[in-house]
Design goal:
505 residues; nine-stranded mixed beta sheet; single chain
Length: 505
């Protein structure tokens, strides 16, 4: 790849100002009409964090920045459009226990997003590419998405590594992590803010909390990234199945786990959905040769889970793997052999007894291929799309969209954007029958050149969970990565002003 910029600038016009609601109070004290408590408006600023993509010198990374159309608003009456002001910028590498501590490359010419609806890409090569932090403002803020896709063709980190750059937060769960000898798992902590953050890392194995060191009060300097090798945090024997809990005691960070298996390949583990009584893990590839479920119960009660596979024709119980017992504070795992049987499916976890529902977090470790030609990816439990969600960097061949409705029938609108180098966007309304998974492989922009984004928006009916699989085989290795659709938080509830214009006696 050509070595180019790592800064992706997002700019926009300012959104309309919030207009207050005036309520009149009659002199005699008669009640005035009540104002609505809140209203939803497009966000005016959105922040994202992209971790350092790889330490391999042969790594090739593509960043795709995209904002969907249809949410931004015009400037308020009499207002003026503001020039672009936001961008992704490099984050310095801060030394840490088990971290790489590599000096980041300097940013070069930027790739600029000029309007919603068209992806913009930037490329980078090598193992010294830095983490990125930044924000989009104005009309480019609602739904702003950045996809980071890295190909490592050889070496210990061989694989296709995909990650949707995440919003900074204070609490993250990563089931399916590992401290085993054949795994090199780094948790990347990146601080996008002007003040330092302090993070804590907790590790839980099959027997409970792992005895750890250097996990409390990890400083993450402003605009810096700290990669931490999980196996260095505990002096005990390596554990195959570990749940990682990252929290901050001050500030906020972006967090993701880079997992590399000596034999199976490598990929990112994205944060799982918050603990909940049920979980959906969408988009298991049809040709998966190995699927391993990892779950953790963070509360004081054990969880007994019913395990089901949501297929194109209905919801079934996998043979010999219909339940999982998860002890409180402990990580449980189960191999699910011959799970998909040649068809894309999604895993559904529900309480075995609805009267004894216990919150859990969960993720899948998925393997494609056999022998030396294998590749690994991870699917975290994901919440339903409530308003809109986007995954960027889709290709004309190799992209599969999975839509799962675990309950009632649902309709969603799916849009394939214009291509990064040309093409006409197309949209399609898809009906997903309750208890099934629908797969789309042919929704591609007309005259596509480059890559494109897929956006999912609920229309009616029940809840829908979605995932995108990107398959880029190389030299006989079935390289792939799976990204779940996370609601883009394009709008926010804003309190409605209530002004009393009455005159006091």
């Amino acid at each position: 790849m050509k070595r180019t910029t790592l800064s992706l600038i997002a700019g926009a016009t300012a959104l309309a100002a919030v207009t207050g609601f005036a309520a009149l109070t009659a002199p005699d004290g008669a009640a005035a009409p009540e104002a609505k408590a809140t209203t939803r408006l497009p966000v005016e600023r959105a922040g994202l964090v992209c971790p350092a993509p790889s330490t391999s010198e042969v790594a090739e990374t593509l960043y795709t920045s995209y904002t969907p159309t249809g949410t931004g608003s015009a400037p308020a009456a009499g207002g003026k459009a503001e020039p672009p002001t936001a961008q992704l910028r490099t984050a310095a590498s801060a030394p840490s226990e088990g971290g790489t501590g590599k000096k980041p490359k300097a940013a070069k010419a930027p790739a600029t997003v000029t309007a919603p609806g068209k992806p913009v890409t930037a490329e980078a090569e090598g193992g010294s590419v830095p983490a990125l932090t930044g924000a989009a403002t104005g009309a480019l803020a609602p739904g702003w998405t950045v996809q980071q896709t890295t190909v490592v063709p050889a070496g210990g980190a061989r694989g296709l590594l995909g990650l949707g750059c995440g919003a900074p937060d204070t609490d993250f769960w990563f089931p399916a992590s590992s401290t085993a000898k054949d795994r090199q798992d780094y948790v990347h902590l990146t601080n996008p803010d002007d003040t330092a953050a302090v993070a804590d890392i907790e590790l839980y194995g099959p027997e409970g909390a792992l005895k750890s060191q250097f996990t409390d009060g990890i400083p993450v300097p402003a605009h810096s990234t700290v990669p931490v090798l999980l196996s260095t945090l505990t002096s005990g024997p390596g554990q195959k199945d570990v749940t990682v809990h990252v929290t901050t005691r001050s500030g906020r960070v972006g967090a993701a786990v880079a997992a590399a298996d000596d034999k199976l390949g490598s990929d990112w583990i994205a944060p799982a959905a918050d603990p909940a009584n049920s979980a959906v893990l969408p988009g298991i590839p049809a040709d998966a040769t190995s699927v391993r479920l990892v779950a953790f119960a963070p509360g004081e009660e054990d969880a007994d889970l019913k395990v089901q596979l949501v297929t194109a024709t209905g919801t079934i119980v996998p043979a010999g793997a219909g339940s999982l017992h998860v002890k409180s504070g402990m990580t449980a795992a189960a191999d699910l052999p011959n799970l998909t049987r040649g068809a894309v499916g999604s895993l559904l976890l529900t309480p075995s007894d609805p009267k004894k529902a216990t919150p859990v977090v969960a993720a899948l470790e998925v393997v494609r291929g056999k022998g030396e030609n294998t590749e690994i990816a991870f699917i975290p439990a994901t919440a339903a799309v409530s308003a809109r969600a986007t995954v960027a960097d889709n290709r004309a061949k190799g992209s599969t969209l999975s839509l799962t409705a675990p309950g009632a029938d649902a309709q969603v609108k799916v849009t394939a954007s214009a291509g990064s180098q040309g093409g006409t966007p197309v949209s399609k309304t898809v009906t997903v029958k309750g208890g099934t998974t629908t797969v789309l492989t042919d929704l591609v922009p007309g005259g596509l050149k480059g890559s494109y984004a897929l956006t999912v928006e609920p229309v009616s009916g029940g809840k829908v969970h979605a995932a995108r699989t990107l398959a880029l085989p190389e030299d006989g290795v079935p390289m792939f990565t799976v990204q779940t659709f996370v609601d883009d938080r394009g709008t926010v509830e804003v309190p409605t002003a209530h002004q009393d214009l009455g005159v006091l006696d």
